[in-house]
Amino acid sequence: MSDTPIRTERRGHVLEVTLDRPKANAIDLATSRIMGEVFTEFRDDPELRVAILTAAGEKFFCPGWDLKAASEGDAVDGDYGVGGFGGLQELRGLNKPVIAAVNGICCGGGLELALSADIILAADHASFALPEIRSGTVADAASIKLPKRIPYHIAMEMLFTGRWIDAEEAARWGLINQIHAAGDLMARAREMANQLASGPPLVFAAIKEVVREAEDMKFQDALNRITKSQFATVETLYRSEDQLEGARAFAEKRDPVWKGR
Q: Taking Cα atoms as reference points, which of 114, 116, 122, 97 lies closest to residue 198?
């Protein structure tokens, strides 16, 4: 897909997705729709187990919405495609790990996109902000997600003021998992992706569904659904070859061979 603003590369069970829209990797409606198609294909391909989302260049990860495209007619409430903005925020049934490798400026909708990943790695020069307040708009997805990811008062400060934080502060508040030198970022992301890709895909799927669905449930209600196999992915896991393989491998003192079935 090198002729599009989204480049993809398969590396075994890992899909690398690179946003490549010079100069800043902003996302317009057409790009968002392509991203939705890419992540839908990732979700539905049984051979793919992990995705890495990153961007081209060294300065920008993504500033979010393409204001130039908006000035030329892209409607802010237009058709973002399956999965909503950037293809990730509202993609149903995405039960595979997604790693964001943030290689630079990550703000506005770009930060919301990163928040849609499960793990965030950042280059040491990366920076983060929600500057929507300065243009009189609402960082809608971030207003929902950020106070659940980092301390409430820090999230509200970022939303109210639009101030920037560097990678070190982002890590201190738990916004990102790890910081790496820019030249090492993709190598470390691939290392983590390969580690996850060698793990049990049905367990990862169950974890993602439980975490997602239980977010607004009472603890006991969520636990009851798990123990009664009322989550589809949990039911699949408990009836799978992989669960038997895990038990056999433990008994035989060897590494399990996961097949995802």
A: 97
